[in-house]
Design a protein that fits this description.
Shape: elongated
Number of strands: 10
Strand order of the largest sheet: 1-4-5-8
Oligomer: single chain
Order of helices and strands: HHHEEEEEEEEHEEHHHH
Number of helices: 8
Strand content: 15-25%
Structural class: alpha+beta
Largest sheet: 4 strands, mixed
CATH class of the largest domain: Mainly Beta
Helix content: 40-55%
Distance between the termini: 47 Å
Number of domains: 2
CATH topology of the largest domain: Butyryl-CoA Dehydrogenase, subunit A, domain 2
Length: 341
């Protein structure tokens, strides 16, 4: 399958599966596994710009989720053989991977996993697998006798079926996977996937927040440019009421940006504080992206409601990403729980 989906409409362009030759796939993968050895801060820069450009490429699923999960598993496990075998392909872009955790409910609650592992065989199904249409490798969570485990599954494995899902956001493909005694390779410590996935999701929340902020900034920029150049009845539409709406969009963008940046800083400096900061960032960034996408459509008037304009693609990405890992209300509930409120 192709790595880039046809998003329709005008303009959004992806870097393609090779990361545009920029080495983005291996950015945060350690040098010993074929990567560049950078970290979350550098990934934040890419995530924010990918949101701004409405990137149509499997960067988030393959790099932010799977590569970080494999690195985390290698850091916490005595056996790093899986990381040594799998990460170099992700680092050079020759392989695309997807993380399969959620099931039909769409929940990222790890206690709801029903896929089971009998030895090295997986049975069950996963849904809403992000960037799964382009993947040739899946990292799957499954129940084992020792607890929740992680398993690497080749997309060509016998007994694995993949079905593309029709979702709100056509720029980010999702699939449903069915496992029928599928051969799988254990990754990390047996039964140790819960801690690995918890950290991966928290880091994913922080970086997704940066992506959402980038999208919000993009629609703010296009709305500002439109307001300065669009004329009606021989005058510009930059009325005071329009300026107020643009100002509200700017406040939302900067609020989300500060929260996302702080979450990534804590991921580097104080990882123990990452869960609360990531929840806060996702709540703020989700609100900013959805609000700005709606305002952009309104401010663009008639053209903003058409498929020929990019506004609807940013609107779809904002709403879809706002639900990923749990919406703003879910993140607020989680934050309150983490703070003991």
């Amino acid at each position: 399958m192709a790595a880039d989906g046809d998003a329709g409409g005008a303009g959004p362009r992806g870097l393609g599966p090779d990361g545009g030759g920029a080495g983005l796939h291996g950015l945060a993968i350690p040098e010993e596994f074929g990567g560049s050895g950078f970290g979350p801060v550098e990934q934040l820069v890419v995530a924010e710009e990918s949101g701004r450009a409405l990137l149509v490429a499997p960067f988030f699923g393959s790099v932010v989720l799977v590569a970080n999960a494999l690195v985390t598993a290698a850091d916490s496990a005595a056996d790093t053989a899986a990381a040594k075998d799998l990460l170099p392909g992700l680092a050079d872009g020759s392989r695309i991977a997807a993380l399969a955790v959620t099931e039909d409910s769409g929940s990222w609650d790890l206690t709801e996993s029903t896929v089971t592992a009998a030895g090295d065989r997986l049975s069950g199904h996963k849904s809403f697998v992000l960037d799964g249409a382009a993947a040739d490798l899946f990292l799957v969570s499954a129940r084992t006798e020792q607890g929740l485990g992680l398993f690497a599954v080749e997309a060509t494995a016998s007994g694995l079926r993949r079905k593309s899902l029709v979702t709100l956001d056509p720029t980010r493909q999702q699939v449903r996977l069915t496992f029928d005694a599928v051969a799988a390779r254990p990754v990390g410590d047996p039964g140790g996937a819960a801690a690995v996935l918890a950290h991966t999701v928290d880091l994913g929340l922080a970086l997704l927040s940066a992506e959402l902020v980038g999208s919000a900034q993009a629609v703010l920029d296009m709305s500002l440019e439109y307001a300065k150049t669009r004329a009606q009845f021989s005058r510009r539409i930059s009325f005071q009421a329009v300026k107020h709406r643009l100002a509200d969009m700017l406040v939302a963008v900067e609020s989300g940006q500060v929260a996302a940046y702080e979450a990534v800083r804590l991921a580097v400096d104080t990882p123990s504080q990452l869960p609360a900061a990531a929840a806060m960032a996702k709540a703020a960034a989700s609100k900013a992206a959805v609000f700005c996408a709606i305002e952009a459509i309104q401010l663009h008037g008639g053209i903003g409601f058409t498929y020929e304009h990019d506004a609807h693609l940013y609107y779809r990405r904002a709403h879809s990403s706002a639900l990923l890992f749990g919406d703003a209300n879910r993140q607020k509930e989680r934050l309150a729980s983490l703070l003991g409120i």
